[in-house]
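Good morning C.,

I know you're traveling, so I'll keep this short. The sequence:
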Amino acid sequence: MRTMRRGAEDPRMAVAVVLVAVFMTNLDLWIVNVALPAIGTSFSGGANGPSLGSLSWILNAYAIAFAALLVVAGRAGDRMGQRPVFLAGIAVFTVASLGCALAPDLGVLIVARVVQATGAAAQIPASLALMLATVPAERRTRATRSWAAVGGLAAAAGPVVGGLLVEVDWRWVFAVNVPIGIAALVAGRAVLPAPAARESGPLPDLLGGLLVILSVAALSGALVQGPGWGWASGRTVLLLAVAVVSGAAFLFRSLRHPRPLFELDLLRLPRFGAANAGSLVFGVAFAILLLSNVLWCQEVWHWSALRTGLALFPGPALVPVVTLLTARAAHRFGHGPLVAAGGLLFTGGMVWLACFASVTPNYVRDLLPGQMLTGAGIGLALGTLVAAGVQALPGHRAATGSALVNSVRQLSSTIGVAVLVAVVGSRVDAASAHAFRIVWYAAAALALSTSAIGVHLGRAGSGRTTPAVSKEPGPGTRALTDAS
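The tokens, ready to paste straight into the viewer:
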């Protein structure tokens, strides 16, 4: 049986390659936020570019495809081995990034983003499995948190890096991935371990994946277009009906299919189900925060992309600091208290923005305190939710389980962007201030719900026990028991 014939001499190099790839893909998921106004202006040739609703599909097409393909990619890694799937994902992501940088119009860019998401989906679940195969058993909890923290840091830092690149040209937001991807691919071939494939047999329900894409895309389309079309218009009602019907069909197939895309029975595990619920609501609030801050600075305050990125830096800077300082607290107190505290801090930051942000720029009063509070909340909650979900699963489901957790996060980001566009509207200016306050209060309520879920996580237990899951699934179900 193959185990770790590559990278065993220096596992730190293998871990470094994995973390670089995870950072790159997660960064790209959010880095485009700050570039949206510049992309719209570039494609229109003037100030009146595509609407915010149209541009939002640059974000949402990526997130939807990413979420739907993560589980398929996770199973592919279990079946074929994590190393080849991970390296193939880097290659696809790198080529697609070049396609995004060269896109001649909005439609081509959106298609290239879907291909980019395919490569990212292949990397993320395999990356965690490769890390767990690289580090000793006693360091796996810390490795899981580091893996999750890198994703959170990349997501929070996206607007900052994006602002710097947009000052050169928005196309560098995508082109920057090309040399990084090539370097990671070359290094990965040399140092990554090659754990044996764990499964054989067919891939999971691919039709289920299409139904997820259809349901979330239709829901996002209804939320984005509803204000312009009218919420009672035939087109909006049709999109909502498609979302409901395709979502119900997906749930039906998942309960009956021998290899469902999402193993819904896993959600009955107290810690895993609670962690996914927390990831969903916190992810919606997080997506609202990132895009709304960018739009506020650029469209309401009329700041440049670079100034916007620098203004948003304090929040991202706190994420790794808080994550590192609370690593021992996670062992001592469990995941629940950290998630609860993170949700409360994030709530405070959103309430601060809603109460104090003014159309007349006053950064120290308006944005800085909110940035500090939300950054600390992200550092406490985001990585901890992922770690809580992944550690509630058995080892042979690490890739598939992490894919499910991350699928929920990406779907929540799509919903968050769509909600923001629905409330704020397709054209943003100083007159949108009241709408921003509404959506900030909504994000605060979601973060408060995350705190309540954190309390539930604490009551469900903070130990690292894992459920017993049968290796061979029955029709639409797995025999699950909680080992605790």
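Safe travels,
E.
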